[in-house]
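debug: dumping io for the single-chain case to check the tokenizer round-trip. Nothing else runs in this session.
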Amino acid sequence: MATDCPILVWMLSLNREYSLEEYSECHKVVAECVPHANIPFDPPNADSFRQVMTHLLPLLMMRHRRIPRAKWRDCVTQNGKHWIEQTPDDMPPEKFLHSMIGYHLAFETSLCGMAMTQGIQRKVVNIGLGIKQVAVEPRGVSVKAYTESMSHKLTATELSLLEPSLGDEVVLRRLCIILSLKQAYIKAIGQPTGFDWARLEFNIPAKTALGDNHPLQGWEFRIFRAKLGVARRDVLVEEHYQCVCAFFRGTKESTFVWYETVKDLESWVQFINIDQMVKVISKLTA
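debug: decoded output
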């Protein structure tokens, strides 16, 4: 099973402030090579920078595979799921069929990510990435108040797993795991922004996943964390993120796979930062 649609994730840490020159250079490449992203030029807007950097990840991945930009095209399904199709050239038909690369992009605060897999088109598009910063919003509110503000996205069972008596740290981490699981699944099936998150239920201790009270079968949920050191002006801040990659494998059961250490992640998750991206930016259009 591991050789069928192997999963790779690229994580880009926005670990420092960016310059106008860096924004302009990166935006120019996205405008030229990823026209469907259609990101307005807005250098002071940090969200715009996040979008630009996230949309560079597929270009970086294809560059890493030594496939020139002219040799592949970005395709999209009716419900907005993206995959990359390479030009067949001298590829045998069977190899071409299994050369499709499905991917999903996500970002939050200082972390941009891309989850991708390769295989036949109808399989590879069923991939999603969820990223949730382990922090309350807005800053300064209590964990209890933040949990209550998220309760419309949760089921009664999920709320029962977030009892305040467990302590703020446990409750916040559990909440972020549940929300990132839901986000990854919703994106993997290509649902729009208005999807009702409470239709889904993830009971972590019981290792069950439900959609409209029916078991979600055939899904693989890879759950991992990311810890970033981010320079905010002259101060280095540590940020924690809960991440989930969801992929439909079509097996009888759904599985939750936990990756707790850096060593666990080395084989399939690659971390890079702004400097590393900017260093190769001029090569991404080739």
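debug: round-trip ok. The mean pLDDT is 95.
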